[in-house]
What does this fold into?
Amino acid sequence: MKSAALRAKCDAVRQLSGLLHAFEMESPLVERFLQEYCVLLQPRRGELLIRKGDICDQYFFIIKGVLRGYTDYAGSQITTWISVENDLVTSIYSLADQQPVFENIEALEQSSVLMLKAVHMEQLYELYPALNKTARLLLSRYYRDAEMRAFMARIPDAASKYLFFINRYPHLANTIPIKYIASYLGIRQETLSRIRSGLSRHTDAGRTNADI
It folds into this structure.
């Protein structure tokens, strides 16, 4: 009989295989490889998967939960990205050049994460060359999100920035504590609270008018 930990890992790998299926790259051989080399991590809220200054040599696939990247500056934490279920995260800079990472990777809640070492990812590409297409598609998603973050950071008005955020990432708006969203957007938490309250009043007024 499989242990609970082994069953959890098998289920997690099947979820990752399901994502590969979405890219038309599902394969029993690939799934067996992932079962052998992936490690299932279950970080608690506040636990760090990578610390600033580490060398990142792994990929993290989020099965369940929320991760963020952040760095410390002038006594404050600056959130640089937030990722949720079915996202793939790593430090591209550190992974490519084997330089120390600039940021910490932290679990914002109890999470389940599959970790695959970069060396095993390279073996996977060599064994199954068709996966290189999947890697390019995943990388394009990664850089698309980075481009959206860069654009959002340049929006000068705080309210417009938040509206862009909730339109682009509606799945994050109601699941992430406000202090992390404020840090991610580069605005004060008090300012974001006022913006959200104003939007809520506007929405409630719209509902009232519609009912009249």
